[in-house]
Amino acid sequence: MTDPAARPATDRARQILGAARTLLEREGPDALTMRRLAGAVGITAPSLYKHFPDKSSVVNALADAMLRETAGVLRAAESADPGSFSALATAYRTHALAHPHLYRLTTGRPLPQDLEEHAAAPLLRALAGDEGRARAAWAFAHGMVVMELNGRFPTDSDVAEAWAAGIAAFAPVGL
User: Measured between alpha carbons, how far is 78 from 82 in angstroms, rounded to an integer?
Assistant: First the structure.
């Protein structure tokens, strides 16, 4: 995992991160400014720098939280339906669509390799350890979510049908 020190250590830092997430999820990335963030927690913008050295450190903490949540969602899906790519893809999609701005903020940039691998571990297990297939399935799920979030499907498309077709394509052979 990433350095535990990168996670908020104080109550105030956790409060700031919570306010940042609320701003991001309600209003999108343009709302996530240090001035707005300070106002949301009732402090001055310079006081934020006691807890986060810059805006990118806030963004990194938000992305870290999203990746950890995604890993937890995938572990829960795997526990509920072991070996099911369908359960994993559905859980991934549901979580991403529930947090569109946070999802975009997290996946629209380079990710720490250890966190991405941790989040993808259930997928690798579901696809019988086939790393190439697991990476392709991860790309399928991510691409589908991005297209859905960005309204890239034609209006008369059945997005659920497209998901089902992709899931079927990655289902383990013989099932």
Answer: 5
